[in-house]
Design brief:
Elements: E1 2-7, H1 11-24, E2 28-34, H2 37-47, E3 51-55, H3 63-68, E4 76-80
Parallel strand pairs: 1-2, 1-3, 3-4
């Protein structure tokens, strides 16, 4: 059982990734999502994900800002982005 979290400012991207996870990753049994860094931080503390799908460019704060805010990571990160850079 793997618990995953999706952090992306675009709800369409969250829904697409949820669908892909459901169809292709049966070992991921729980998925939560957040649309901002400020929403994601308390969710990470409470949900304790094993895997975080993290958008890099978001308004206000980036995915890298989220990671810098966490003292010790207890999860793996997959960066997701629509940008080439």
């Amino acid at each position: 059982m793997i618990k995953a979290m999706i952090v992306d400012d675009k709800t369409a991207a969250i829904e697409l990734l949820r669908w892909i996870i459901k169809e292709k990753c049966p070992e991921i049994t729980s998925v939560v999502s957040a649309i901002s860094v400020s929403e994601a931080l308390p969710l990470i503390e409470n949900f304790k994900p094993d895997l975080v799908f993290l958008d890099i460019q978001m308004p206000q704060q980036s995915g890298f800002d989220l990671l810098s805010s966490i003292k010790k990571w207890n999860f793996e990160v997959v960066f997701t982005t629509a940008f080439n850079e």
